[in-house]
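Worked Example 4.2. Consider the chain below.
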Amino acid sequence: MILVIGVNGSGKTTSIAKMAARFSHEGHKVLLAAADTFRAAAIDQLQEWGRRVDVPVISQNPGSDPGAVVYDAIQAAHTRGCDLLIVDTAGRLHTKFNLMEELKKINKIIQKFIPDGPHELLMVIDATTGQNALLQARKFAEDIGLTGVIITKMDSTAKGGFAFAIADDLGVPIKFMGTGERVEHLIPFEPQGFVAALFTQS
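Applying the procedure from the previous section yields the following structure tokens:
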């Protein structure tokens, strides 16, 4: 089970779709959960991506309880024999809601059914946002813990140093890098190759 967090506009939903396509291609039976219920557009976007990559999406109406969506998705994953559930979460909530508390609540629901879940808690960070992204990630890491990071918009060597800042500041591994708009433009992060490429292109 992978829980994906990140501020709106970071490329979170697109990264989820890219992961779903990659894992499906590798033979996994994948299910997506649209737990960013505070934006109707987020639900629509994940459903559209699910159609494109041929992966089913569990969703409810906008404004629904995100925890209820996660609950439904866990039940559906068991019923359908899925071996991977990827959950999209809100990047920003209405002012009367506390984002961290909402994510902690989702975690509790997951752990009722999957005691060691979520197995991955990944934050999607836009490489072009620089220091602000680091501050946001640090807050997420402190409050709910992270197991890794996906860096998007890394299709320019000028942003290469950002990967070092993330790894140094957060102390968590970079799992994937987004290098373009297409579904296949998500690559596993390979440190040696990344460093070699920076020196080659400099």
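The radius of gyration is 16 Å. Helices lie at 12-25, 40-53, 66-80, 99-113, 131-144, 160-170, 191-201. Compare this with Example 4.1 before moving on.
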